């Protein structure tokens, strides 16, 4: 679609110029005709030019409407109220958005190959034409230029696993439409990175810390989790950050051995290793989030912190390693989607840990939830599926043998709307803190 639109937009001015050049009479012919005939010719020229432009506009309309799910414009009935502190940003619906994404896989050079669905041959594009709309207010699509102006000399960090990396790439793709970013650091595995937007002196990081706590995998054996020690890879940098988005997730489902107070206290999915008690992934996740919450609240450094909730996957008829797939091309409607048990349990833990302060969690504190679980659950159409690699079905007789990715998100795709919610949630928190300071 992007290529077709580009052709239309590039060819239109050139074609218009040709019409103007060929329709205006030459100076020699104009001297030998009457004023009336000259007027007629100018009139015919104008009519041709008008018809030509009308045809271009009509072609553009049909190109857009052929890809958009609905020609209905997004609902803006609540736009007068804007997105306020009292609005629940996380309860809403996906509504048609014919304007499409803020970038394409051609205009952004920071998309990981596994998530570059269009380049890898995904044939449908309807999943690009939706936006998230909260029920009680209008959520503006954040302006990358205004955002960059507001975060001059600031540092924003994402901490977590590959979904955090997926998110930061979406964020960079949007911001790089205003200013190209410079990568200034990466670790050996290219998992942790630091970028800078030079003209704004804005720094952006992603830190690979899938468990958020200290973890070791000696000699490729089972993962050892130290549930009383946060991962120093991010804690030693914490004092540099002005904004932080932290997330946990699916890594806690792996086989893990738990360490606390220099003792092995249990495990998850350890199948009787050394007669250890299987305490479950919810045990390690709860311990980790409590440790994380206490660290943020007790730290003398007070960046604005968002904890992003768990991301549900959409594997059907199996899991990633047992033939599971995701081939839907439309969002779910409310009530059509049901969360899997593991996601339900992780979300319950998150709400238990981060809502202990009651209504208005952490009022005056520097941490709050970025609750993207519900909005993500409704988008089974937004994953790479088999299009993790170019032309995944080439030479394959049995398509069921092609591995699908139904956890990460296509770029561009639904994850781009996380940024609208994330930025608005940060702005709301800043306003709350400002109001509290103003009242003192």
From TrEMBL:
Domain Trichome birefringence-like C-terminal: 139-424
InterPro entries xref list: TBL (IPR029962), TBL_C (IPR026057), TBL_N (IPR025846)
Subcellular location: Membrane
KW Membrane (keyword) present: yes
Protein origin, superkingdom: Eukaryota
One Pfam family this sequence matches: PC-Esterase
Bilayer-spanning residue ranges: 49-69
Domain Trichome birefringence-like N-terminal stretches: 85-138
Key words, A-Z: Membrane, Signal-anchor, Transmembrane, Transmembrane helix
Topology in membrane: Single-pass membrane protein
UniProt keyword Isomerase present: no
Family: Belongs to the PC-esterase family. TBL subfamily.
PANTHER family the record matches: PROTEIN TRICHOME BIREFRINGENCE-LIKE 26 (PTHR32285:SF181), PROTEIN TRICHOME BIREFRINGENCE-LIKE 9-RELATED (PTHR32285)
The protein, known as: Protein trichome birefringence-like 26
Organism: Camelina sativa (False flax)
Source species taxonomy: Eukaryota, Viridiplantae, Streptophyta, Embryophyta, Tracheophyta
């Amino acid at each position: 679609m992007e290529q077709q639109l580009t052709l239309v937009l590039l060819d239109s001015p050139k074609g218009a110029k040709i019409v103007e050049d060929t329709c205006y009479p030459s100076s020699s012919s104009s001297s030998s005709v009457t004023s009336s005939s000259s007027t007629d010719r100018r009139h015919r020229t104008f009519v041709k030019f008008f018809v030509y432009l009308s045809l271009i506009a009509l072609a553009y309309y049909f190109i857009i409407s052929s890809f958009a799910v609905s020609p209905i414009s997004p609902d803006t009935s609540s736009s007068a109220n804007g997105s306020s502190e009292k609005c629940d940003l996380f309860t809403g619906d996906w509504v048609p958005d014919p304007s499409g994404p803020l970038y394409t896989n051609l205009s952004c050079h920071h998309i990981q190959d596994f998530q570059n669905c269009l380049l890898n041959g995904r044939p449908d594009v309807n999943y690009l034409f939706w936006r998230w709309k909260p029920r009680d207010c209008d959520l503006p699509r954040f302006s990358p230029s205004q955002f960059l102006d507001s975060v001059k000399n600031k540092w924003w960090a994402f901490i977590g696993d590959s979904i955090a990396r997926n998110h930061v790439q979406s964020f960079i793709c949007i911001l790089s439409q205003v200013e190209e970013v410079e990568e200034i650091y990466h670790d050996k595995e290219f998992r942790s990175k630091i970028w800078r937007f030079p003209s704004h002196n804005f720094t952006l990081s992603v830190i690979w810390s899938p468990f958020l706590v200290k973890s070791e995998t000696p000699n490729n054996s089972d993962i050892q989790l130290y549930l009383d020690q946060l991962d120093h890879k991010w804690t030693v940098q914490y004092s540099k950050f002005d904004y932080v988005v932290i997330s946990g997730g699916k890594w806690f489902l792996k086989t893990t051995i738990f360490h606390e107070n220099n003792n092995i206290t249990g495990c998850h999915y350890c199948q009787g290793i050394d007669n250890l008690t299987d305490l479950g992934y919810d045990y390690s996740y709860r311990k980790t989030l409590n440790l994380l919450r206490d660290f943020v609240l007790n730290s003398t450094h007070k960046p604005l912190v968002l904890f992003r909730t768990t991301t549900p996957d959409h594997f059907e008829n199996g899991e990633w390693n047992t033939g599971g797939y995701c081939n839907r091309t439309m969002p779910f409607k409310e009530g059509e989607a049901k969360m899997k048990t593991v996601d339900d349990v992780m979300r319950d833990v998150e709400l238990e840990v981060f809502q202990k302060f009651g209504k208005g969690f952490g009022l005056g504190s520097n941490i709050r939830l970025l609750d993207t679980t519900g909005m993500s659950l409704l988008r089974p159409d937004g994953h790479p599926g088999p299009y993790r690699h170019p032309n995944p079905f080439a030479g394959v007789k049995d398509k069921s043998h092609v591995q699908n990715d139904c956890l990460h998100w296509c770029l561009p795709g639904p994850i781009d709307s996380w940024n609208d919610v994330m930025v608005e949630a940060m702005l709301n928190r800043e306003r709350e803190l400002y109001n509290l300071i103003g009242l003192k």
